[in-house]
Amino acid sequence: MSSFGFGTLTVALFALVCCSGSDEKAFEVHMRLEKLIVKPKESFEVNCSTTCNQPEVGGLETSLNKILLLKQTQWKHYLISNISHDTVLWCHFTCSGKQKSVSSNVSVYQPPRQVFLTLQPTWVAVGKSFTIECRVPAVEPLDSLTLSLLRGSETLHSQTFGKAAPALQELGMKFIQLCPRRGLAGTMPPSRPWCPAATHWSQGC
Ligand SMILES: *[C@@H]1O[C@H](CO)[C@@H](O)[C@H](O)[C@H]1NC(C)=O
Ligand SMILES: *[C@@H]1O[C@H](CO)[C@@H](O)[C@H](O)[C@H]1NC(C)=O
Ligand SMILES: *[C@@H]1O[C@H](CO)[C@@H](O)[C@H](O)[C@H]1NC(C)=O
């Protein structure tokens, strides 16, 4: 990971310019994460390390489930599991009574697996309006989500959600459309005074 590579370089340069013996005062703490973006319930590994030769205490702070897999004096390697929401992880070490920590944000990502479309009512008289509802369960992050209602390649309606509703399990939008006078091209004979049924819309949502 590039941030880890940078950290290693920093340590290497530091060793070149610094006099030996004073590393206890100017020690560094590093965190290496296997992943920064994970799916819900996914597990990932985290390595907390320090340049301090003899740290007194150190470890990983998190509200998530953690298991210490391996450790040596200057590092601890953990397995994090069952992540369900965006979180901040902290690695900390104390060296000669002085504590240092670094943090990293981990984001949970869940692309849409299913999209539901409902028409209410399913059949509408010419000239009456009807409601089209698109719903998508369990997607994250919400501020990356855009729900679009398409007819062919034409976007009828589009909605974003920001960070407004993190607790919702399911998001949706409603769109009210006036039933067209002649039915939609290719779906109904123009003479029939009804809008097309849901199946004609379902691919677009
Ligand atoms: C953890 O990081 C330290 C410092 O870079 C490294 O020496 C060690 O091998 C790593 N441990 C594991 C299990 O990857
Ligand atoms: C995993 O996380 C969910 C929600 O945060 C929780 O309800 C469940 O008990 C956790 N499972 C384990 C095995 O920790
Ligand atoms: C983590 O996210 C918070 C906002 O949620 C931000 O203020 C902070 O700078 C982020 N930290 C890192 C290390 O990216």
TrEMBL record:
Species the sequence originates in: Mandrillus leucophaeus (Drill)
Entry-linked Pfam families: ICAM_N (PF03921)
GO MF annotations in UniProt: integrin binding
Keyword annotations: Cell adhesion, Disulfide bond, Glycoprotein, Immunoglobulin domain, Membrane, Repeat, Signal, Transmembrane, Transmembrane helix
PANTHER family in UniProt: INTERCELLULAR ADHESION MOLECULE, INTERCELLULAR ADHESION MOLECULE 2
Membrane topology category: Single-pass type I membrane protein
Entries under InterPro entries matching the protein: ICAM_N, ICAM_VCAM, ICAM_VCAM_N, Ig-like_dom_sf, Ig-like_fold
GO biological process, one term: cell-cell adhesion
Keyword Signal: yes
GO cellular component, one term: plasma membrane
Chief place of localization: membrane
Localization of this protein: Membrane
Protein known as: Intercellular adhesion molecule 2
KW Nucleotidyltransferase (keyword) present: no
Signal peptide per UniProt: 1-21
Positions of the Intercellular adhesion molecule N-terminal domain: 24-114
Family: Belongs to the immunoglobulin superfamily. ICAM family.
